[in-house]
Design goal:
By secondary structure, the protein is α/β, with parallel strands linked by helices. It has 2 domains: 208 residues, Rossmann fold (3-Layer(aba) Sandwich); 192 residues, N-(1-d-carboxylethyl)-l-norvaline Dehydrogenase, domain 2. It is built from 17 helices and 12 strands. The protein has a 6-stranded parallel β-sheet, sandwiched between helices. Strands 4-3-10-9 form a 4-stranded mixed β-sheet. Helix 7 packs across helix 14, helix 9 crosses helix 13 and helix 16 packs antiparallel against helix 17. The longest helix is centred in the last third of the chain and has 31 residues. InterPro entries: 6-PGluconate_DH-like_C_sf, 6PGD_dom2, Mannitol_DH_C, Mannitol_DH_N, NAD(P)-bd_dom_sf. It catalyses: D-mannitol 1-phosphate + NAD(+) = beta-D-fructose 6-phosphate + NADH + H(+). One of its GO terms (molecular function) is mannitol-1-phosphate 5-dehydrogenase activity.
């Protein structure tokens, strides 16, 4: 029997470091990476392998996984790329939201290819990404490009399933090991319970079929990612380079935890998800401050405009708080720090600083977050966030004001 084929769309940190390593360790899949970065595709082909260092963040124990025997395809090579998608049993998507529409277009083209070939085997598209409403977004974007017959085919033979790909993975390679990665050792992938394979089909052993991954995704983004980015934004403003340094700053650590607690209270009120107990909170904080993994703040705060938009890790829980009668003071204060630093190496940071300079704080906050001032909840969040930006940025401006006044 031929091995089932797996195509991983996005050969970056999650694509290689979680999806690639987990499928490879099963030992029974033919693995292909697809990416838009031609240099990355070429480099992976030439090297023929990469290593993932999987760490237990509490004990420091390590397993090294050497992934090899894979193939790579450049997304620009449309025939090869679509052929790989059309022949796959599993397609794991590991891209940033800015690429969602492009991948949805590719998956719609794959549907047409499979239908034209008369393929009647199920393909499971495993959606990975920190995004609330992932399944709905992709389904709507794909079906909008298909005709009625193609949509009917897709609903029968192409299954979309949200997954919670939540490994912390960073680049670690240099020289001969330039594609090496290091991260935590999460060995389970929660996957939405909607895969229509025939009885007896063997799913990957690392799949944990979850009846409500979307809710689990909300919990992850609006609490775990919330505190992670709170530490990152405040740490960036303080001049720190790693999240470990930020969390060891008593003030930053406390403010980030307060923001997290506001989000958790809203999740409990809205969805019945209980606030973790003290032991779980202690473990969470220890993992952020682990001596075995130093997550760089530059990685955490990349693409700040995306992270400050409505529905993402700050404004999502903030609006939920307001809906539940909880004031999101600390969430919005943490978010405000995202407007108060500028990193020349991060284009979105530079763009946000330009918006603040040219539009002023109120209009810049509205433009970045896309909050609607005509909607009461969103207007309140908009006003609170703009005020927080003024407060956070004030200490930087005071010396300038005094120097001008005193001559």
């Amino acid at each position: 029997m031929e091995p089932e084929r797996v195509v991983i769309v996005g050969a970056g940190q999650t694509g290689r470091g979680m999806f690639g390593a987990l499928f490879y360790k099963e030992g029974c899949y033919e693995l292909t990476f697809a990416d838009t970065d031609a240099a990355l595709v070429r480099g992976l082909r030439e090297q023929g392998h990469y290593t993932v260092e999987e760490k237990d963040l509490l004990t420091g124990s390590v397993e090294h996984v050497r992934v090899d025997g894979f193939s790579c395809v450049d997304v620009a090579d449309r025939d090869a790329y679509l052929d790989a998608l059309a022949r796959a049993t599993y397609i794991a998507v590991a891209v940033f939201p800015k690429s969602f529409d492009d991948v949805a277009r590719d998956l719609a083209e794959m549907v047409r290819v499979r239908k034209a070939r008369g393929v009647e085997d199920v393909a499971a598209v495993i959606l990975g990404g920190n995004f609330v409403g992932l399944h709905e977004y992709f389904q709507r974007a794909i079906e909008a490009q298909l005709n009625e017959d193609e949509r009917a085919y897709a609903r029968t033979y192409v299954a979309l399933a949200t997954s919670k790909a939540n490994r912390k993975v960073v680049h670690a390679g240099t020289g001969a090991e330039r594609f090496a990665l290091t991260g935590d050792n999460k060995s389970v992938l929660p996957v939405e319970d909607c895969l229509p394979f025939e009885a007896g089909h063997r799913l990957p052993s690392f799949f944990h079929i979850d009846p409500d991954v979307e809710l689990s995704m909300i919990e992850k983004i609006w609490s775990e990612n919330l505190i992670h980015c709170s530490l990152g934004f405040m740490g960036a403003c303080a001049g720190y380079t790693t999240v470990n340094e930020a969390i060891e700053d008593a003030r930053i650590g406390a403010l980030a935890l307060y923001a997290w607690f506001e989000g958790r209270r809203a999740l409990e009120a809205a969805y019945g998800i209980p606030v973790p107990d003290e032991a779980a909170i202690k473990t969470m904080m220890e993992k952020f401050d682990t001596p075995y993994f130093h997550d760089r703040i530059a990685r955490i705060v990349r693409q700040p405009i995306r992270k400050l938009k409505k529905g993402d890790r700050f404004l999502g829980p903030a609006l939920l708080c307001i809906e539940q009668g909880i004031t999101p003071y600390f969430i919005l204060r943490a978010a405000a720090h995202g407007f108060c630093y500028e990193d020349a190496a991060e284009p979105q940071s530079v763009e946000m600083a330009r918006l603040v300079r040219e539009l002023g704080i109120d209009e810049a906050v509205r433009a970045v977050t896309e909050l609607n001032p005509c909607e009461p909840r969103e207007r309140l969040a908009l006003e609170m966030l703009a005020d927080a930006v003024r407060e956070v940025s004030c200490p930087r401006r005071v010396p300038e004001v005094f120097s001008r006044v005193l001559g």
